[in-house]
Amino acid sequence: MNTTDNTAPGALTSLRALGGQPDSSLAALRRIAAEQARLLRDLLTVPVPQTPARLSVLIPSLLIEYITQLPTHGIAFWARPYWHIRISASDPSARQTFTVLHQFKHIIDHPLRQRLTALGDADWEELADYFAGQALREKASPDPSGWASDTSELQAATPGKGGTKK
Ligand SMILES: [Zn+2]
């Protein structure tokens, strides 16, 4: 039975699989992040400004929304049946692209983060920035000074816990 969202079970699963044998060191996780970024670069195959749109196509379970009055650069959260990334509509396009990639790394890391409780929020933020920077390598990157400014923006609701209707 085919539904209209022809989900190629692909990109997100493949990206997560790269982190399948985690050792909890930050160095190992950075290596994995670099590999994931390399894979994503191969999958994206579009100019940087089209990255968010292309990502939505690659990841059918991902919705990217531009919000006018977002008090931060971006957030990511699960609300069945989609992962949502919300981006500040007033940020410059290059910043938005970086933010989308940063948030997307949080989504990739979500299952791992549940398990690797030894790492702190700052570590996951650094990994997300690192991933986004690597994914944009050989391309324009935004001002590094703004990179680490998002904290605690991943509000992960657990799927199947019966809360979020609508
Ligand atoms: Zn973050």
TrEMBL record:
<dbReference type="Pfam" id="PF06114">
    <property type="entry name" value="Peptidase_M78"/>
</dbReference>
<protein>
    <recommendedName>
        <fullName>IrrE N-terminal-like domain-containing protein</fullName>
    </recommendedName>
</protein>
<feature type="region of interest" description="Disordered">
    <location>
        <begin position="139"/>
        <end position="166"/>
    </location>
</feature>
<dbReference type="InterPro" id="IPR010359">
    <property type="entry name" value="IrrE_HExxH"/>
</dbReference>
<feature type="domain" description="IrrE N-terminal-like">
    <location>
        <begin position="73"/>
        <end position="132"/>
    </location>
</feature>
